[in-house]
Amino acid sequence: MDANNRSYLEIPTRVLGWLEEVEKIKIEAQSISSIENGCFNMKIRYRAGRNAFKIKEEMESLMDENSKIIWTDAPKPLGKVNSKIASSFPPSDGDAQNHFKSRKKTFKDTLGFLQRNHKIQIIAICGMGGVGKTMMMEQLKKDCRRYKNV
After folding, report:
1. Do residues 4 and 11 lie in contact, with contact meaning Cβ atoms separated by under 8 Å?
2. Residue 142 contacts residue 94 (beta carbons within 8 Å)
3. Which of the residues 19, 39, 56, 135 has the least number of beta carbons within 10 Å of its own beta carbon?
């Protein structure tokens, strides 16, 4: 999997979940104690054997599932976004200071043009798609309403 990450090759979607299950079973297997299993305590030996058998069956099913995972040499799509990384961003609260740090001057200049002492009533923000023009306009709209109420 590390080699695929370095080579920017696509990793099957099931691999990460499979690895998590393997780690869980590994921890369960290490928790089975062989020190306390004396030859005279049949109940403890039976329980340990039963747990070991269950873990063995789970390991076999995971090994079978591993053989069904198909690895390819297909490159990762350029526009693919890791959903875990994307979902870790804080939800948008409309705060211009958090979202427009790199464009603070542009935001302040645009807000200045919309003040009462200017005759400008309509503005246009132009740029590439996906850079936050709509979000900036929504924040400008909120700030203008706030200043007009003050």
Report:
1. yes
2. yes
3. 39
